Amino acid sequence: QVQLVESGGGLVQSGGSLRVSCAASGNAFVFKTMGWYRQAPGKQRDLIARITSGLITVYADSVKGRFTISRDNARKMVYLQMNNLKPEDSAVYYCNAFPVGWCWGQGTQVPVSS
Known about the structure:
A hairpin with a 5-residue loop joins strand 5 and strand 6. It is built from no helices and 11 strands. Strands 6-5-4-9-10 form a 5-stranded antiparallel β-sheet, with no helix packed on it. A 4-stranded antiparallel β-sheet has the order 1-3-8-7, with no helix packed on it. Strands 2-11 form a two-stranded parallel ribbon. The mean pLDDT is 96. It has strands at 4-7, 12-13, 18-24, 34-39, 46-51, 57-59, 67-72, 77-82, 91-97, 108-110, 112-113.
């Protein structure tokens, strides 16, 4: 079982940037498509970006052109660079395999002030 630990969240102003990170344990990480998901209060958890083991990326329309997902297989890390943040990006951000295959981590909270 892979364990996931997200970090790097924090309060940011509208228009600002932030990078969140996800550390994974276990060797299965390297072969999996990884995704970043987010959940705003009262809403469902949605996939917003994913990256294959071969570094092919796909983004939700809501973040396309503003967010960039990347991974470092040697370090078992996944990153999400978020630029031009908007208040509607406020959420708890999680990483997991795509499709979801492991237990969720605690997430990292990103509030965006207007």
